[in-house]
Amino acid sequence: AQSVAQPEDQVNVAEGNPLTVKCTYSVSGNPYLFWYVQYPNRGLQFLLKYITGDNLVKGSYGFEAEFNKSQTSFHLKKPSALVSDSALYFCAVRVITGANNLFFGTGTRLTVIP
Amino acid sequence: KAGVTQTPRYLIKTRGQQVTLSCSPISGHRSVSWYQQTPGQGLQFLFEYFSETQRNKGNFPGRFSGRQFSNSRSEMNVSTLELGDSALYLCASSSRDFISYEQYFGPGTRLTVT
Fold it and tell me: In terms of CA atoms, which chain B residue is nearest residue A90?
């Protein structure tokens, strides 16, 4: 069975500091991994994805994520946090076997403190 | 390109009624997926349509149904509404081979069942 875990419900970071939002996954095949961000009363916005190739993936708004196969992790990172980064972040996984829908984590609320 | 649009944005219904939600994907996108988002269950996959055919279905009762038209627009219907159906319903579209392509989400329809 496919699953995604985001172990932290809430992450607080000071503006200008680096941020990390954690994600681990469990799949039976090769994973396609995604990060989405949700602002209040809005749908989800795509940030970045890992399909294959370089383990470090760069995405929108200065975010990047590192795919670690041995640790089955796909943590989201940003070198310097902005107050405007405060939002709800979702990690998602998709596999090419069986149902090809996205499995989402429970979300991590990021608060950047001015 | 215009993004994914969903109508209506807000809806209030009473128990036992039925409701139809509409989604217009990004022009050229042929895959449309529906998700239910609630505070308790998070984001859960409902179903996915591609070229007017339902390809995948999540673990929801038969009261939840959908369809896709030849112009890729999609509707989902919920019959005999229950209080637990109150949620944000998100539609997402994807182009061509959806497996490795990211999904683009609409702003959602907020359904409240009283």
Answer: B43
Q: In this predicted model, what pLDDT tens digit does every residue of A48-97 receive, in sequence order?
A: 999 888 899 999 999 999 999 999 999 999 999 999 999 999 999 886 65
DSSP strand pairing (A108-113 vs A10-14): parallel
Measured in angstroms, the CA of B15 and the nearest CA of chain A are apart by 24
pLDDT tens digits for B6-41? 999 999 999 999 999 999 999 989 889 999 999 888
Would you say A32 and B100 are in contact if contact means Cβ atoms under 8 Å apart? yes
Cβ atoms within 10 Å of A10's Cβ, excluding its own = 9
Quote the CA–CA distance of A1 and B10 in Å, as a whole number.
34
Cβ of B66: how many Cβ atoms within 10 Å? 22
Q: How far apart are CA A35 and CA A48, in angstroms?
A: 6
| Identity of residue B75 | E
Residue A90 with chain B: CB contacts under 8 Å: 43
Chain B segment 71-100 residues within 8 A of A by beta carbon are: 90, 92, 98-100
Q: Which two tokens stand for residue B77?
A: 């219907």
